[in-house]
Amino acid sequence: MAKEKLVLLKEADLTNNCPECFNQDLKLSFYQKHYHTKFARRTSNEITHELICNKCKCHIYPVSWTEDIERTFDYYQKMVRPKPSSLNLTTLFWVLLFVLIAVVGIGVYLLIQQEIV
Fold it and tell me: pTM for the whole thing?
């Protein structure tokens, strides 16, 4: 099973009012998803975001955003540059692939030797 990890791309402090407590101390964070397995590491191009009030510690969901927060969010979203999606194979994958090729090669060699005799 793949382990999912969120890697921070950009974090910004906003001075917009919180819809819950009306404080002007918000934090906007953008994350990119990375998946890790024993055989490969994959970077996806999926970007997620999170908006949190630093005073009341509540998550502010897009349903309760004001127009000012939406404009600020659009500005910072344009500034985020995600890493390109990629797939990196681990050493374990390459070792198992080499062992599989060697076993198949030995099996073919033994079959050829039996036909000659």
Answer: 0.76
Residues of the chain with pLDDT under 50: none
Cα(68)–Cα(113) distance, rounded to whole angstroms?
A: 78
Residues 45, 82 contacting (CB under 8 angstroms):
yes
Which tokens is 76 given?
């910072």
What's the confidence (pLDDT) of residue 117? 61
Query: For the chain, what is the total number of helices (H) and then of strands (E)?
Result: 2, 4
CA–CA gap between residue 97 and residue 103 (Å, rounded): 10
Provide DSSP, 32-90: EEEEE-SSEEEEEEEEEEEEEETTT--B--GGG--HHHHHHHHHHHHH--PPPPEEEE-
The tokens for 52 are 């949190």
Whole-number Å distance between alpha carbons of 11 and 80: 10
Cα separation, 26 vs 65, in Å, equals 12
How does 75-113 read in b/e, with b if 16+ C-beta sit within 10 Å?
ebeeeeebeeeeeeeeeeeeeeeeeeeeeeeeeeeeeee
